[in-house]
Amino acid sequence: MTMTWALTAPFDTVLIANRGEIAVRVARTLSELGISSVAVYTDADAGGVHRRAADRSVRIGSYLSVDDVIDAAVSAGAQAIHPGYGFLSENAALARACGDAGITFIGPPASAIEAMGDKIAAKATVAAAGVSTVPGSSGAGLTDTALADAAREVGFPVLLKPSAGGGGKGMRLVERDDELADAIASARREATNSFGDDTLLVERFVTNPRHIEIQVVADTHGNVVHLAERECSLQRRHQKIVEEAPSPLLTPETRAAMGQQAVDAARACGYVGAGTVEFIVSSDRPDEFFFMEMNTRLQVEHPVTEAIFGVDLVEWQVRVAAGEPLPEQQRDLTFDGHAVEVRVYAEDASRGFLPTGGEIVAYREPELEGVRVDSGVASGSVVGSDFDPMLAKVIAWGADRAEALQTLEGALADTVIAGVTTNIGFLRRLLALDEVRDGRLDTGLVERHLDQLADPAGPNAVTAVAAAAIAPFVERSGESDPWTALIGWRHGPDRSVRRELDVSGSDAGRVVLEVAPQSGGRWFVRGDSVGERTVEFAGPLGDRADIVVDGVRSTVTVDRHGDTWFATVGGDTWACVEVVHRGNDDGVAGAHGDGVVRSPMPGTVIAVPVEQGAAVTAGQTVAIVEAMKMEHALTTPIDGTVDAVHAASGDRVALDQPIVTIVPDEIDD
Predict the structure, then answer these.
(1) Where are the alpha helices (DSSP H) in 455-547?
(2) pLDDT per residue as tens digits for the range 97-152
(3) What pLDDT score was predicted for residue 492?
(4) Is-contact 329 235, C-beta < 8 A?
(5) According to the model, what pLDDT value does residue 602 have?
(6) I need a surface site. Which of 161, 230, 257, 292 has the fewest CB within 10 A?
(7) Could you tell me the pTM of the whole model?
(8) 3-class DSSP assignment, residue 640
(9) What fold does the segment set 13-106 form as a domain?
(10) What per-residue string of b and e applies to 517-537 under the rule 16 or more CB within 10 Å gives b?
(11) Structural domain boundaries of the chain?
């Protein structure tokens, strides 16, 4: 449905206190409303796409500084601030500072942010309004002993959760009593690093849990409505990666009951604006649901709600902040069809979803009916370790769930991000699982299937990638000028050409391709990971090639950057580098030897619990590296003795930088 709603905003300029895709998305709506947008950026983000999406931009020192944001708004003449999500979006100090500066905050009042920002206080507030809550501890400031006692009273398994913040940071699942002490210490440490507050609560862990949230919007005239639910059960490390609306689990009756409780929760804290009330539901008892928390901001996954209701939630936020009443009553709000969203991250699924980085050398979005892409990057964007690794969101709408999933699969197949490892291939494999297709979801599904989801496709795909990388040489082989032909022209019978590539990716290894021009485009391929195969080209060559490997067709897109070909098939992208032999040199340098423990990502060392000369055993943690405010334990692959410690707590480390060197134990014959 299309809303007609005349804008009478008391402001003509809005500062967007965020970056990336959400800043671009907010700027788009402001432009449609005829409101001037002002972006902010830091030195690390000076080339951000969001600067180009806004009408103007202002440099600030930090996205996390309330003073910097307020000063930027005042200097730009902005009468309002939209916080997006993340950063300061749930910071009551920003909402309060806006009021002090005479600036409209496009979000809830500071009192509501404070009431819902502390999970312990939030549970008490909504419980008083009759909202169902998960059994667990309710006291603030519990000591380690009190937390342990509460966990034992609730009964294992339990969840430890930071009272402040969200996003899964600091959350720990504890299944046995002997795990409690270490889990509490680790959760407190991560909560302090992420939120500056180590307060924890403990809750009963719901078996076969599903994460379902209700979108609410409230105005300043006492109206509160909900726009049904979103299912966010497909997660990795408690971070959502796939969201959909509506949920395939809920009946209309449960939807109505959950929606009413969400409205009650919003009323209980005096909420204004767009927010989300999150519930946990057991697959075994879908009519039983419990309040988890309220996010006092727009959610990353809001586009799926927009897709099925035909509304613009950012526009609703702006209009509510301008003092206008909501345009619809609850009885008038109906949805149509189904929508699914995936989050595209710069991360390596085969390495435990560790953040990646680098320059995006090619970026292409799908152009399909029913598909929307919210993106914060472009070709040439540099992805670093300073910010969250989410690059874009791909959203697909369909008349029903099956159509939405099919459309989304096609959209991901047409998405190309070369130069930076992403999770696109992982997402395609996840969406293809029978459980996902059938709607049999829960928050542990990804972990159970991780081995088959994390690794890229097998030998056929690697072979097709290698062949596609060399395809331009084949295309030029038909040129009449022997000095420009690259297929090994000679005076007399043509000879075959041999090209050797190192292909990145999981166990891809080295691939050798040999072709003779008289073979009619048929290639012989062999390699470390592909065995011996035949390849032929089934269509025009160039940036996009159809390649048949042992009878299986694949479509591969190729982008070249310097001496590297980036080839994408099925959402996975491989980097291919030609091996150049010099004398007895084997070409590209080999892998690092055993015994050197290296950082798997750019980050900060927060602990090195071993010293030079210490004896260690395989699997023992020898360093902890923090990246994107999450801890990663690095273990030794062998038994041995610590020969050298190359980094200390607090040191910044680059990808593959040595941290500890282990000398292996001698093994008797």
Answers:
(1) 459-476
(2) 999 999 999 999 999 999 999 888 899 999 999 999 988 886 677 899 999 999 99
(3) 46
(4) no
(5) 64
(6) 257
(7) 0.81
(8) strand
(9) Rossmann fold (3.40.50)
(10) beeeeebbbebebbeebebbb
(11) 13-106, 136-204, 209-454, 459-578, 596-664
- Check whether domain 459-578 has CATH 3.30.700, yes or no: yes
The residue length of the chain stands at 669
Task: Give me the DSSP letters along 324-344.
Answer: PPPS--GGG----SEEEEEEE
My answer on whether omega of the bond before 246 falls inside 30° of 0, hence cis, is yes
Residue 129 structure tokens: 């309004």
| Res 580: pLDDT | 60
Task: Look at the block and give the residue holding tokens 């953040």.
Answer: 355
Residue where the block lists tokens 């072709």: 515
Q: In CATH, what class is 596-664?
A: mainly beta
Place of tokens 């680790």: 186
Question: Per residue in 78-88, pLDDT tens?
Answer: 999 999 999 99
Highest-confidence range of 255-264, 446-455, 602-611, by mean pLDDT? 255-264
Condensed to tens digits (0 to 9), the pLDDT of residues 285-328 reads 888 999 999 999 999 999 999 999 999 999 999 999 999 999 99
Q: What is the CATH number of domain 136-204?
A: 3.30.1490.20
- Selected from 3.30.470.20, 3.40.50.620, 2.40.30.10, 1.10.520.10, the CATH number assigned to the domain covering 209-454 reads 3.30.470.20
The identity of residue 622, as a single letter, is V
C-alpha to C-alpha distance for 221 and 476, rounded to whole angstroms: 69
Burial of 166 (0-12, 13-18, 19+ CB in 10 A): buried
Structure tokens belonging to residue 254: 């449960």
